[in-house]
Amino acid sequence: MGDRRLELLRELEQADEAVAAELTELDELYSQVEVLHAGALELEAFFVDLPDARADAADAVATAERRLSETRAAAQEAVRQVTRAEADGDPDRLAEARRFELRARDALLMAERRAAAVRDDRVELERRAEEAVRKTAALQAQARELSSVLEARPRFTDEAVAVPERGAAGVAEWGTRARAALLVARSQLGDERDAVVRQANELGAVVLGESLSPQGAAAVTRRVERQLGGR
User: Fold this and answer.
1) Residue among 24, 9, 7 nearest 185 (CA)
2) pTM for this structure?
3) How far apart are CA 178 and CA 95, in angstroms?
């Protein structure tokens, strides 16, 4: 009888190890889905904001270019005033014209820097948009691959882990479904493992003739093996 109980304990230990391994796999899959889901949400938000960002960038460039044109015209006028003042030979007028020219040159320099900065900002925005498109394609490929892995497992319905729709929004929606399915599967596995461990503890208590503090099936089996001399 004792040997049969030990055999049952070893079977429970194997079952415990199998469930623990599956739980580890699910945790790894959940982590992968979580990364994809977070990345998709970030890209989705970027694409939602992109039209307004492009409009703002275009307005900023237009405003800066208009200001640059105005300050360039003012600088040219300042040069003409200096030329006229020099021709008139009036020292006071010439000094004032040169001060005006200095201010106009400073304003032009600032306008040129501002125009260059907003042009760079618009170029950077488009670079980010192109990069977002590439990232979205990569996320979609990863999500399709991971979807195939999940569909091959018995604990998930096709609907829960079906291949995502195109675009960042599609990957984000798929991530929400896949995460929920993984959480449900993990909860079910956790219940199964609890049942296995409970059976091992109950059987071990019977064999050892004492109540046991909750412990894993492997620990219970080792104690029983020692008690029965490894038979």
Assistant:
1) 24
2) 0.78
3) 76
